[in-house]
Amino acid sequence: MNKIIRIGTRDSQLAVWQATLVQSLLKEKGFQTELVPLKSDGDIDLVTPLYAMGVQGVFTKTLDSALLSERFDIAVHSMKDVPTQMAQGIAAAAVLPRASHKDLLVPKNGTEFLSDAAYSGLVATSSIRRKAQWLNRYPHHRITNLRGNVNTRLGKLSEEDWDGAIFAAAGLERINLRPESAIELDWMLPAPAQGAILVVCRESDTTTFEACALLNDPDTALCANIERDFLKTLMGGCSTPISALAEIEQTLDKEGNPIRMLRFRGNIFSLDGAAHLAIEKTVAVEDARELGTIAANELLEQGADKIVATIKNGN
């Protein structure tokens, strides 16, 4: 392949870091590349909460449109931002090995507010998934909106009268901005595919697809797609507090032979965090491909459809 692969990316520091990673991996495989940065609608509007923008793929649609218009050959996305139904004409070419899937609390002045039941703490996040899980655990707290790239959000935390803000660990760690005070929220399930990077190209561009496919990590792709199937089956999107995590674990069978199992955990919350349903299932990796859909259907049978209906009605 002699052509230069043009890599489209948002122009934030984190997005450029992700695109540069893909660039270096392709270079290792012998391909020439160049970066083509663009600003997405999600980066331009830093005021409207994500869940109020009424658009799935708010951070990806600008890149996808430019990709289909052949302004570049591949686009690099945080996989959690990609709609479960991708745009027609675009193909998933590679999922890179996953970084941390966890969420972090970055406190402003200590964590005493977490243990004070009489104090109405103020925590910032633009994610209604994080908001719902936080209010379920701390119903006496308040949530305020926080938008912008990672650098902007950290700056706002230092300026505003907030007790803390919630971030994705992978985003802070990739660009070396994780504060020493950050606390991993082990009890909070992540967004489907959080921590994974997705490379997409045009379906018609088989040469570029084959080049990028060399970067694909099958285990991360399997886990992330199971999580996204869970989200899709529950009819969720940016405006639905749905979380999912699939992890491959090495264990032993009854005869002491090593086997690989996939553990799946998922949940759905009402917007205020008061109502929720959760599920956990573990199966052999070779039997796991449909697990996200199966788990979601079980939750729908238990009443998840009622939570979804309530969310769509804005309650």
TrEMBL record:
InterPro entries in UniProt: HemC, Porphobilin_deaminase_cofac_BS, Porphobilin_deaminase_N, Porphobilinogen_deaminase_C, Porphobilinogen_deaminase_C_sf
The Porphobilinogen deaminase C-terminal domain, residue ranges: 221-300
EC number: 2.5.1.61
Alphabetized Pfam families for the sequence: Porphobil_deam (PF01379), Porphobil_deamC (PF03900)
Cofactor(s) the protein needs: dipyrromethane
Role of this protein: Tetrapolymerization of the monopyrrole PBG into the hydroxymethylbilane pre-uroporphyrinogen in several discrete steps.
PANTHER family, A to Z: PORPHOBILINOGEN DEAMINASE
Protein's name according to its UniProt entry: Hydroxymethylbilane synthase
UniProt source species: Flavihumibacter fluminis
Gene that encodes it: hemC
